Predict the 3D structure of the following.
Amino acid sequence: MLRSPLFYFTVLALLLGGLVTACGKTEHLQGKALYATHCNNCHLEEGQGLRRLIPPLAGADYLRENPAAVARGIRYGMQGPMVVNGVTYDHEMPGNIELTDFQIVNIMNYVHTAWGNEVPLVTVEQVRGWLAE
Ligand code: HEC
């Protein structure tokens, strides 16, 4: 059955629109799933951290101000004292050497927008640059 060009145009537009939305969603969901596997144990469900042992990710000034150190920390780990929202933490965070650049981007962007956080999103180009420093 032959339909008008407008019909085909509408179907195509809907498909493309759905695809674009699905892509953004997929990255967010991957970030969320990776967080559950690699970060949740310590930083916890709401990114609240744990007393003076684990710094919070929700509302953390460190996260907002040091994206390069965070990208490297997710891959290579973090150690030494750091101040987050005025509190000093000094425990080791293990690295995740198996995560790809894209996976690190998706985790970071999940954390940057979860729990009311409004930290600017990062791109894979930025993260690659920081990891190479
Ligand atoms: C074994 C526990 C543990 C795991 C798992 C862990 N972290 Fe951490 N994280 C820490 C500790 C402890 C620190 C503080 C490090 C220091 O004192 O130098 C930290 C610091 C941070 C910081 C900087 C401080 C802040 O609160 O903004 C960020 C961001 C962060 N972690 C994100 C992550 C992400 C994302 C993951 C998952 C890929 C993750 N962490 C997995 C324990 C952990």
Remarks:
- The chain has a mean pLDDT of 92.
- The radius of gyration is 19 Å.
- The CA atoms of residues 8 and 14 lie 10 Å apart.
- The pocket of heme C is lined by residues 38-39, 41-43, 54-57, 60, 62-63, 70, 73-74, 78-80, 82, 84, 89-91, 93-94, 96, 107, 111 (CB under 6 Å).
